[in-house]
Amino acid sequence: MKQKKSIGGIVLTVLFAIVSVIYVMPIVEVLINSFKSNAYVNMDTFALPNADSFVGLDNYIKGMTFGNYPFLKSAGYSFLITITSAILILLCTSMTAWYIARVNSTFANIMYFLCVFSMIVPFQMVMFTLAATADTLRLNSPWTIPIVYLGFGAGLAVFMFTGFVKGLPLEIEEAAAIDGCGPLVTFFQVVMPMLKPTMISVGILEVMWIWNDYLLPYLVLDRKYYRTIPIHIQYLKGSYGTVDLGATMAIIMLSIIPIIVVYLFCQKHIIKGVAAGAVKG
Fold first, then answer.
1. Contact, 144 vs 216, CB < 8 A?
2. DSSP 3-state assignment of 181?
3. In terms of domains, do 12 and 143 share one?
4. CA 239, 39, 240: angle at the middle one, nearest 5?
5. Looking at residue 274, what is its pLDDT?
6. Structural domain count, the chain
7. Could you tell me if 48 and 74 lie in one domain?
8. What distance in Å separates the CA atoms of residue 127 and residue 146, rounded to the nearest whole number?
9. Is the distance from CB of 67 to CB of 235 less than 8 angstroms?
10. What's the distance, Cα to Cα, between the start and end of the chain in Å?
C-alpha cells in the first residue's frame, strides 16, 4: 500500500514538474529574445543568443526611448492606476462584505447575489457601453479609472470577503459595541485586522489583474495623453506597421518582473486567503 502511494507521489511530482516547465517556458523565451536582435528573433526564436545575435541592453534602451512617449511615464500611470484601484477595491468591498454578512436583510442578499452575478458577465458584453459611460462621467483619466475597476473587481472581492466575515466570531464585535465603538471604529479597529489574510490575497489578485490589463485602459483612457505599460507595448511600431520584436520582448520583460516579484513574496497568502474565504461561513 505504501509502495503504491510512493509511486503515485512520484508520478504526480513528475507531472506537475512538466506542467510547471510548460508554464515557465514562455517567460524564459521572452527573457532570451530580449537580448537578441530583431532579425534573429524572427528567424531563430528558440535559439540562445550567440556572438551574432546578442545585443546586450540595446533592446531595453530602444524600448524605453522609442517614439515620443517615455516608458517611465507609462510605468508611472500603471503604478498609479494599479495601486489606487487595489486600495479602493479592498476598502469598499471589505466594508460591503461586512454589511452583507452582518445585516440579514433582503437588500443585503440581493446586493450579494448581484456582486456574484457580475463575476460571470463577460467584459465584451459591456465594453462599448462602458466606454461611452466613462466618457460621459469623465472617468477617462488615470485618477478616475479606479472607479471603473472598482465596479469590475467588486464581484470576486465581495464573494471572498463575505465568506471570511461569516466565520468571524460575532461576540468580538458585540464587545466592541458595549465598549462604545461605533460601526466605523468597529470595522477599522476590530474587523479589518482580522481580515488580513483575505485582504492580502484579494489585493494580490486584483493587482495582478489590473497591472496586466490592456483592454479597459485602451477603451477608457485618452491614449494621446495616458498610456499604461500594455498600451505602450502595443505602440512599439515602426514605419508601415513593422514591429521591433527585440524591443517589445525587453519591455514585456520589464513589465512582468514587478508582478512576478510580488507574487513570489505573497503566494502563500493567496492560498491561505482563498481557502479561508471559500470555506468559512
1. no
2. coil
3. no
4. 15
5. 56
6. 2
7. no
8. 16
9. yes
10. 37
